[in-house]
Amino acid sequence: MKFFIDTANIEEIKEINSWGILSGVTTNPSLIAREGRVFENVVKEITEIVDGPISAEVTATECDLMVKQGRELSKIHKNIIIKIPMMEEGLKAVSILSKEGIKTNVTLIFSVNQALLAANAGATYVSPFLGRLDDIGQDGMELVSDLSEIFDIYGIKTEIIAASIRNTMHIYECAKCGVDIATVPYKIFKQMNKHPLTDSGIEKFLEDFKNVETKGEF
Ligand code: E4P
């Protein structure tokens, strides 16, 4: 399973990218707004840090404008993926952009049917939002695992990005059902790294090693 980071914060992206585990970045209008900077500048800066798919979302809700915004955003860098909300106009835009060779990520997916429509329209990625489904008392993981199974049955090339991840168990469950990608918030990456037995193990090794003679600097 590949990892993307779900943020528009440059410092967070730099830090997690330095671990050598990042394959891409997803942003959305809310994450961009949180940074208080010019949208295109943020996106460009991200492309200079991570060499992988960077999702940037259109804000139009009508096909022609979505296509226009998508074409503009795709000029920023070859790695830009145009994120388009799941809606009728969005499907039309995905179909047009994909025929032009512009990659898309259909976002705000909450059902298998929506994902199937997006895949058939030519989406490169679909983003099911599992945390937001959990929030309203539906099982987000069930959607992700159903999608994974159904895409496999039909050999659908569209990749699944598990999104709206809220905890480390979400990551574990996504990996078990073979999801292609998880887009993970900064805070969850930090939690994934931690285990109390690792911390106490390191402490004990360092303590025991204190009196060992060495030839170099250890
Ligand atoms: C995905 O691409 C979205 O940016 C994101 O995962 C939304 O997550 P949220 O439900 O925590 O806002």
TrEMBL record:
Transmembrane segments: none annotated. InterPro entries: Aldolase_TIM, TAL/FSA, Transaldolase_3B, Transaldolase_3B/F6P_aldolase, Transaldolase_AS, TSA/FSA_arc/bac. One of its GO terms (molecular function) is aldehyde-lyase activity. PROSITE patterns: TRANSALDOLASE_1 (PS01054). Pathway: Carbohydrate degradation; pentose phosphate pathway; D-glyceraldehyde 3-phosphate and beta-D-fructose 6-phosphate from D-ribose 5-phosphate and D-xylulose 5-phosphate (non-oxidative stage): step 2/3. It catalyses: D-sedoheptulose 7-phosphate + D-glyceraldehyde 3-phosphate = D-erythrose 4-phosphate + beta-D-fructose 6-phosphate. The keyword Transferase applies. GO terms for biological process: carbohydrate metabolic process; pentose-phosphate shunt. It comes from the Bacteria. Its EC number is 2.2.1.2. The active site is at K83 (schiff-base intermediate with substrate). It is an enzyme of class 2 (transferase). Transaldolase is important for the balance of metabolites in the pentose-phosphate pathway. Belongs to the transaldolase family. Type 3B subfamily. This is Probable transaldolase. It comes from Anaerosphaera aminiphila DSM 21120. The gene is tal.
